[in-house]
Design goal:
Elements (H helix, E strand, L loop, with lengths): L2 E4 L8 H10 L4 E3 H5 L1 H10 L10 E4 L2 E4 L1 H12 L6 H25 L12 H27 L14 H16 L1 H7 L4 H11 L2 H8 L22
Parallel strand pairs: 1-2
Antiparallel strand pairs: 1-3, 3-4
């Protein structure tokens, strides 16, 4: 069994949240656009009909096509055993995954607060204001929420000793924010030891460690969600 993952080939973006869960679970998949190119992705999307992906990432399993990052991750978790132990826990994880989706969108909007289609240089003044509000108010509020969730059980992960799709997403969130806002994260993260420990524990998972060691992970860059512009980063 092998899945087809469709996402843009040169950025981590939202596709990386799916890649990390697949890598952590050591599930076979083909990163189609990285092998066949962005035009192949566009052609594949154009060829789909009915209820089809609005945008990548999307995952294909035979005739089944699933889009939206949180949706993909919850489906994979249920199928491969990295979701909750019961309905209550599973729904709680989906809820947290959607909160991750919210902060990721806000992180993106720090450098594109006016229009996604405009260049960063066309909205730098607005970006400085948006980034300040994100650093000062939104990051601590989200981190409080995640720290509380991680404190509900013993162990480094949200559900305790076993990792879930939320944990791999929290790893990506922490590492992405450390890239985008290194000064702010250096000052803020020590106040959230559970969140920091979760990210470190995910990085130590055999599948993730192998993924990072093989240097297959696309580097953070200024074309993705998490972008480092020094003028937007203050402690």
């Amino acid at each position: 069994m092998s899945y087809d993952l469709w996402y843009w080939p040169s950025i981590q973006g939202r596709g990386e949240f799916v890649r990390l869960a697949l890598e952590a679970a050591e599930i076979a998949y083909t990163d189609r656009a990285r092998e066949d190119g962005a035009e192949a992705l566009l052609d594949d999307m154009d060829a789909r009909t009915g209820i089809k992906p609005y945008a990548p990432p999307y995952l294909v399993d035979g005739d089944l096509c699933i889009a939206q990052t949180a949706h993909i991750l919850s489906w994979l978790g249920a199928k491969h055993g990295f979701c909750g132990a019961d309905e209550r826990e599973t729904l709680g994880l989906i809820q947290l995954q959607l909160v991750v989706t919210d902060i990721v969108a806000e992180a993106h909007d720090t450098h594109h607060p006016v229009a996604t289609g405009d260049y960063y240089d066309e909205q730098k003044d607005e970006a400085k204001r948006a980034a300040k509000g994100f650093r000062d108010e939104r990051m601590p509020k989200y981190f409080d929420h995640f720290e509380s969730a991680l404190s509900a059980s013993t162990g480094p992960f949200v559900t305790g000793a076993s990792w879930s799709h939320v944990d791999t997403s929290l790893f990506q969130l922490v590492r992405g924010l450390q890239y985008a806002f290194p000064r702010r994260m250096a000052a803020l993260l020590p106040d959230y030891p559970k969140l920091a420990a979760c990210a470190d524990a995910v990085e130590a998972l055999p599948g993730i460690r192998a993924y990072l060691d093989r240097d297959r992970r696309i580097a953070f860059n200024e074309d993705g969600i998490f972008r480092h512009y020094p003028e937007l980063d203050e402690a």
